[in-house]
Automatic annotation (TrEMBL):
<protein>
    <submittedName>
        <fullName>Uncharacterized protein</fullName>
    </submittedName>
</protein>
């Protein structure tokens, strides 16, 4: 979500009208009016357009949706509804008949200026997409055939990924500049946090989460030919591993906040044992992620100075145990359910200090978290 754009939520569903073919996916973008006294008029429809089946991300006026059959990703202008371009996946040996065996399913994406990073189960692909004026020209010249964009850089993961969540890191320097109304640092690509769980040969994924960081290229400049990511000094770097046990058929999820707080749902409900999953139940746990490669993540600096909004406070105990890379930061347990496994989605808003849990039954639970010593 882009704070400078009115769209706050995008909903993809199957069409039931006569304009769009029945059963085809259609996406609606809504704005929100928090001052409205009528709950039914809080959300206002901005635009509606056809899309691919699986929504990935909305960033400003760009909406990305994936087609898992063709292994392509659509980039759509939410204001006009035009299909800007299609991000294609390169096939090994350039053999289209192998597409069904190559799992390039899109898991997440990051948009920065004219570049898009697509995180797939086996690969990371970097694309450079046309800007609005270029897209308008291309669309007017060939409205029925949007341009197909190939990746300009790639990176292959060592193993297939089961689940993944990425987030651009809002650095301490940028937060401090905004709070003090000072000029922001030069417009450079942000560092990206990656939290993932690799797949396995068993019917469940591995019992370990991995925190990677993807730093921008040190020599990148907008006017140069150097790409912002996936060059020699810009590949995923593993910061730490976190034990997180899984159980067959137990719902799980993970997320990362913009300041580096990771949360996940797993099956480690037996607090008396840290080496195996419980027989029943779920756990909601989290950890403040740190990096060795970002100077704004200094180990001797707390993540929040008094008066600065929107960052998870560190207690003295956490600060004393903080290592250089954060590997000694303890895992925080926010909730344990010993008898049921109904939670399937988790989200965090660090600016407000809130966690949202979604259940398989459609219920949503919103919780506030307050660091020790800060209770009212």
């Amino acid at each position: 979500m882009d704070p400078e754009h009115p769209g706050v939520v995008a909903v993809t569903r199957r069409s039931t009208n006569n304009v769009q073919a029945e059963g085809e996916p259609i996406t609606s973008v809504y704005s929100i009016n928090l001052e409205s006294e009528d709950p039914e008029s809080v959300f206002s429809l901005i635009s509606e357009f056809p899309s691919a089946r699986y929504p990935i991300i909305m960033h400003g006026s760009r909406f990305l949706s994936a087609n898992h059959i063709t292994n392509t990703t659509q980039v759509i202008d939410t204001e006009s509804g035009d299909l800007i371009c299609v991000l294609c996946t390169p096939l090994v040996n350039n053999d289209p008949t192998l597409s069904g065996f190559e799992d390039f399913r899109c898991l997440d994406a990051v948009v920065w200026q004219q570049f898009v990073l697509i995180f797939r189960q086996n690969w990371i692909h970097l694309y450079k997409i046309p800007n609005r004026s270029q897209a308008s020209t291309l669309h007017s010249n060939s409205p029925d055939h949007p341009p197909e964009i190939r990746p300009v850089a790639t990176h292959k993961w060592p193993w297939r990924i089961d689940s993944l969540e990425v987030s651009t890191h809002d650095s301490f320097v940028s937060r401090h500049a905004r709070f003090m109304s000072q000029p922001l640092p030069p417009n450079q690509p942000p560092m990206i946090n990656i939290l993932l769980r690799f797949d396995s040969w068993y019917p469940w994924p591995v019992n370990t989460l991995h925190h990677y960081t993807l730093s921008p290229c040190s020599s990148y400049h907008r006017s140069s030919a150097v790409l912002p990511y996936l060059a020699a000094d810009s590949i995923p770097f593993m910061e730490t591993s976190i034990t997180s046990h899984m159980r067959l058929f137990t719902p799980s999820d993970l997320t990362i906040g913009q300041y580096g707080t990771a949360l996940w749902i797993d099956a480690q409900s037996d607090l008396t044992s840290s080496t195996q999953a419980g027989d029943l139940g779920q756990r909601l746990a989290g950890k403040v992620l740190r990096s060795e490669r970002d100077s704004s993540w200094d180990s001797d600096r707390p993540l929040l100075k008094p008066g600065l909004p929107g960052v998870l406070l560190l207690t003295n105990e956490l600060e004393e145990n903080m290592g250089t890379s954060g590997s000694l930061v303890p895992v925080m347990v926010f909730g344990v359910w010993e008898t049921h496994s109904e939670w399937s989605k988790v989200a965090v808003e660090e600016g407000e200090g809130r966690i949202a849990l979604g259940s398989v039954e459609g219920r949503i639970c919103v919780m506030d978290y307050v660091p020790r010593g800060m209770e009212l």
